[in-house]
Structures are given as structure tokens and as C-alpha cells.
Design goal:
The protein has 253 residues and is an alpha+beta fold. The protein has 2 domains: 133 residues, Alpha-Beta Complex (Ribosomal Protein L22, Chain A); 111 residues, 4'-phosphopantetheinyl transferase domain (Ribosomal Protein L22, Chain A, Alpha-Beta Complex), CATH 3.90.470. It is built from 6 helices and 13 strands. The strands form 3 sheets. The protein has a 6-stranded antiparallel β-sheet with strand order 1-2-3-4-8-7, with helices on one face. A 5-stranded antiparallel β-sheet has the order 9-13-12-11-10. It has a two-stranded antiparallel sheet with strand order 5-6. The radius of gyration is 18 Å and the shape is globular. One of its GO terms (cellular component) is enterobactin synthetase complex. Belongs to the P-Pant transferase superfamily. EntD family.
Length: 253
């Protein structure tokens, strides 16, 4: 095993070289990593090569392809496959009878009981986080490539408010990287809470109140009620880790 980057504010996680290995070039790189402060959560990440995608890979990987996915465009099919590949690899660490993650209501992934999980897939990266902890009722994961400065200016007002912006400016880290981390964290928050909310909610439903770059922690306050379990004013802890050109975020509540 080897250590990922450990510069101040960058990912502190252990990568395991002995993860699931694919003989197919579609999965170009994959690994497991453990979050040092959340040993109860298992995370798998992989890179995939779109040019190597074939529909037959569903059969070869032992992954069910639902009808709605088989009718989708190739980009959607390959991203779904990569996400479920990551989920299947993650589930092998748990004593469950199936490694299939089906599509539930509103296209949310449904993990085998009693597990809680979340899947991310976009561009050429897929990721899955899974936990069996009784203390976790919602789990969300997201990865975002760093948003360039010009785009931050274009979308900034729709993602954060003035107070959040001032908080980010108060730190010495590059503003666009911290902004991307907040953007990603709010995406993870949505993925975690949407199944309970049952409705789409925007970035303004959560506001950044506290940031600890050295400990990879962001704390958000819900500015509007989402459900009985997540009322207005509830604080949500989020973990984030910088990884070269992108950021990984995780919400587990």
C-alpha cells in the first residue's frame, strides 16, 4: 500500500493496492481507500476509459443492465456501468447475498439491506461509498474537478451567499478550490438527503458555517426544513479531501 498526497489540506487516506482488479481495459485504474476518521465507511474509486466501453461488459462484469439503461445513450450506459462496478467492488467487503444495486424511486440507488450507500459517476471517474453503521441514516458522495476562476464568477451567486464567500476568502487556500469543495459538499448533501426529502432542493438549503481545512471538515446549517429528521437549523458535518485536480466530498449523518 502507499500513501496518497499528504500536503496540508490534501487527502489523507490509505490506498490499498490489493483491491478488485479488472482484466478489461475499460477500468483503467481503481483502488479502495479508508478515511482515517471514518473507519465505518468503505470507499472505492475507479477511472474508466470511454473508448473501451462495450455493452457486453455488463455481462462480463456480472452487472445487471436495467431496461431504462439499455435504452439510454452510450454515455449514460458507460457511466452507469462504471458506477455499479465501483458499487460491486465495495459490496464485496460486506456479508450481503447480492452485489447488485438496483434503481429505486426517483432513480436513487438501492443498496442491499442493511447497508447504506451512495454512487457517483461522471466524466471518466466513478466512486461508491458504503456503510453498515447503525449510526448512519443518510450517505452522500460526490467528486468535482476544480472549477476554474472564470466559472466561479459565473455561477458563484447560485452556489454560495456573501457570508459563505467571506468565510472562504478568510483562508489562504486557493479560493476556487475551496469554492469547488463547497459546491461538491452541497451536491453530496443533496444525494444524502434527497431520498428522505422526496423533493429537489437547491444550494440555498444549506449554508457553510464553519471550515477546518487542516482537518478536512466543513459544517453546514440547513437554512430551510428538509424533513422531520432534518429541520431548519440542523448542522451537517461534511468531510472533503483534495485529490490533485479534484475534490472528493462525503456526507454521513
Amino acid at each position: 500500500m502507499r500513501r496518497l498526497q499528504r500536503r496540508r489540506g490534501y487527502m489523507q487516506a490509505t490506498e490499498h493496492a490489493g483491491g478488485v482488479v479488472s482484466a478489461n481495459p475499460f477500468i483503467s485504474e481503481e483502488y479502495f481507500f479508508e478515511l482515517h476518521d471514518r473507519a465505518d465507511i468503505r470507499v472505492h474509486m475507479c477511472r474508466f476509459s470511454p473508448e473501451q466501453y462495450e455493452d457486453d461488459l455488463f455481462h462480463r462484469f456480472g452487472i445487471h443492465c436495467p431496461d431504462q439503461i439499455s435504452r439510454a445513450v452510450p454515455k449514460r450506459r458507460m457511466e452507469y456501468l462504471a458506477g455499479r462496478y465501483s458499487a460491486k467492488a465495495t459490496l464485496q467487503a460486506f456479508p450481503v447475498e447480492t452485489s447488485q444495486v438496483i434503481i429505486g424511486a426517483n432513480r436513487c440507488p438501492v443498496f442491499p439491506s442493511p447497508l447504506m450507500g451512495s454512487i457517483y459517476h461522471s466524466r471518466n471517474v466513478a466512486c461508491c461509498s458504503v456503510s453498515q453503521s447503525d449510526g448512519i441514516t443518510a450517505l452522500g458522495v460526490d467528486i468535482e474537478h476544480f472549477i476554474a476562476g472564470e466559472q466561479v464568477i459565473d455561477i458563484g451567486d447560485s452556489v454560495i451567499n456573501d457570508d459563505e464567500s467571506r468565510l472562504l476568502i478568510s483562508f489562504t487556500y486557493p479560493y476556487n478550490q475551496l469554492f469547488t469543495a463547497v459546491f461538491s459538499a452541497k451536491e453530496s448533501l443533496f444525494k444524502a438527503l434527497y431520498p428522505q426529502a422526496g423533493f429537489y432542493f437547491g444550494f440555498d438549503y444549506a449554508a457553510l458555517r464553519h471550515l477546518e481545512p487542516d482537518n478536512h471538515i466543513m459544517v453546514f446549517e440547513l437554512t430551510k426544513p428538509i424533513s422531520k429528521a432534518f429541520p431548519k437549523g440542523k448542522m451537517i458535518f461534511t468531510r472533503y479531501y483534495f485529490m490533485a485536480d479534484k475534490v472528493f466530498t462525503l456526507v454521513a449523518v
